[in-house]
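Internal QA ticket QA-208
Title: Verify multi-chain structure generation after dependency bump
Assignee: T.L.

Test input:
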Amino acid sequence: MGLFDATARAFALLASGDAALWQIVWVSVKTALSGLLLATPPAVVLGYLVAMHRFPGRRIVVWLAQAALALPTVLIGLLLYLMLSRSGPLGSLGWLFSQPGIIAGQCLIGLPVLLAFTLAAVQALDPRYAETALAHGASRLRVMTSVLHEARYGVMAAVISGFGRVISEVGCALMVGGNIEGRTRTITTAIALETSKGDFAQGIALGIVLVTLALAMNGVLVLLQGDAHNPGARL
Amino acid sequence: MTLLLSVQTLHKRHGERVLFDIGRLDIAAGAAYVLTGANGAGKSTLLRMLGGLERCAGCTVTFDGHHLPLYPYPRQLRQHIVYVHQHPILFSTSVAHNIAYGLLARGAAGRALHGCVDEAMAWAGVAHLRENDPARLSGGEKQRVALARARVLRPRLLLLDEPTANLDGAAREQVLALIPTLVDQGTSVIVACHDRDLINLPGVQRLKLRDGRLETRSQHTPPTWRTR
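Actual output:
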């Protein structure tokens, strides 16, 4: 089957409302958003704290956070597999080959992205924002919320990037989820499987969904950002 | 004259270089001071230390009769001393929210909050900018909003870092006119500046940082600085 035929069949598959295909999309979106939801609060707070405070070993923390961005997801999957396997320390949870297992993996994969991007966004902000908040009697919590509000576009970009990383990863979802049809099969693991079987149409259909999701998420970010960052000169 | 703040030891080093070493500095309640000195003499650093924005290990002050360290900065000082940057930072909300910021941080709410904010905006002449985006304000408007945001907290001591720097014409005059009215309401004000018009105002106590030492000179005119 040629690329053209496969693509035509992919669109037909999407339009037909194929239940199995949309189940895969649903599992992917659900696990990605859940993982992101769990990772975002601690990663953003940690990113803020590392950006705002000077402490011994800070540069090592920054280095590790940035290095973790390049960590292969399959390695995270392997570590999580060993933790969640029956003989592992978290085996009693029974999360291996289940959606909670995938969510835990997505959370671990999203964390460094969110942390590193939040850290960069807060570090790039004028430090006088925090000083102004402090000088007007704000508590530490209010200083943090004020600073994060000012860095909100950077933080939003962190969340979008985190979503992009978790929804597009395949290694961890495959190892920890097991690619079980109807339960733990995600867009990426399904694409890998269908391609190996020679069913390119479903792979392309799921690829189209993945690209649409990426475009939609980034579109939301662009809409939220508006013109806020460009009050000055335009070239 | 009642003593508001008395600095016993205040020193700052940048590596081996001693920026300043101040043995004693007394600030009277309801008095105005101008702090002068060459660029790099440490004017901003001194104000930032008094405002709790610069680490100041081992420095102590007496505020309102209480002996306090400057680091970690005590809550008692934070409630009564407000520092305003040379180029004020306004949060990207609205002018009204910026002015309410400190009051909100202190738990104010309801009609009392709105009344204070309205009064401060009228005082600074920025009532018409209420819902404006602070990023679109001029330098003079930003400075007046920052002064209103500080004034609304009724600080005992206000530290202004070159409030008229980079302003000229009407914007500078408007800011200059606001500062004495702060003293009128009983706030002590220390203004770091190079502005001759501010330095030569009658009744202003002059402080000068030179070679790491603080020189104090008061004028012969009455010791308080009142609205002209």
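Spot checks passed. Chain A touches chain B at residues 126, 128-129, 131-139, 142, 146, 149-150, 228, 231 (CB under 8 Å).
Status: verified.
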